[in-house]
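Researcher: Re-running this chain for the archive, since the previous output was lost when a drive failed. Same request as before.
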Amino acid sequence: MKYRTLTGLLLAGSLLGGTAAMAATTTITIESWRNDDLTVWQQKIIPAFEKSHPDIKVVFAPSAPTEYNAALNSKLEAGTAGDLITCRPFDASLALFQKGQLADLSSMKEMANFSDVAKAAWQTDDGKHTFCVPMASVIHGFIYNKDAFTKLGITPPKTVDEFYADLDKIKKDGTYVPLAMGTHDQWEAATMGYENIGPDYWKGEEGRKAIIAGTQKLTDPQWVEPFKQLAKWAPYMGDGFKAQTYPDSQNMFTLGRAAIYPAGSWEISGFEKQANFKMGAFPAPVPKAGDTCYISDQPDHAMGLNAASKHKQAAMTFLEWVGSTEFAQIYGNSLPGFFPLINKPVKIDDPLANEMLGWRKDCKSTMRYTYQILSRGTPNLENALWAASANVINGTQTPEAAAASLQKDLAAWYKPQQH
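Model: Regenerated structure tokens:
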């Protein structure tokens, strides 16, 4: 009798304990600007986490991208922001950390899963403090129409000479515009033009860090040469390229009217829905055979901890998962073209995305040089690069004059360049 009673009490206690545990579910909220990813989070990412963490419920609560910074700042000031903050790269998130609104995550063991390039977008200038777990980057290169290449008997170029030989062949045939890019909106000329091909000349991180340190100048040959290359693009960009907008270029390519698209990997999902031809991709061609190749592997977003979160333990559990291979695998396959920044092997099912991701094995990663530190002053170097790149392609500014203009703009406010 005593045994049965004790067993009954233990069973009742365990049931009550189980009920209490079930009732003690913690809900954490994620702030983000990526509202187009809402269904991916709700249907794939969050269920995968909650399956192994049934005591934590996750709510993904995005704002409109154009409103995110202002909305997030207001919520943080009012103490109503979510537990986890999706971090934009560089200065916007650095400012939140400096105000004490993002927690220091430097001691997380998962930070060892990310390279210095991956973490740089969410660190203090001296690299001593990391405040967001890197989630994804976008990679630059060229997306091409495989059917057009097959028809014309050309192969993806590896060197600059091969690149122009391909463009000449496409132009001579006349069926396709060789390069689908315009200069009306300016930013593409810099982002998919100069910043795409430039790292092969200034040697990626070596050159980028040298400009920050003031040991190289934007008028040095390795910084002028990418402009000289851009100046050669104009004859291949089709009639009316000066009036051609970004959406015009996208349509030109997906409708099959152009052979090559200077690209960012974020285009993959949209292009695959719209194009009815096979696509491939190649990285920026190297100056000459045997040269090391470099890719612009631009950190795009990460996740940080709201320093005022009331659910820090649960939020940290989620952040640790964000730093895992499991998360990277799910995220990379849910959003093809947004590549996990983890330094461990990740298999991406989408063939085009996997092709671009594979460049990391053969090429050295760097990022757009204007994004860290160098665009904090006036004139803004990033915006100045947009105009300079478009001007060079349009033929209204020489490569040397464009480089001199950017150097003057940077030296006007950035002390390491004032010597």
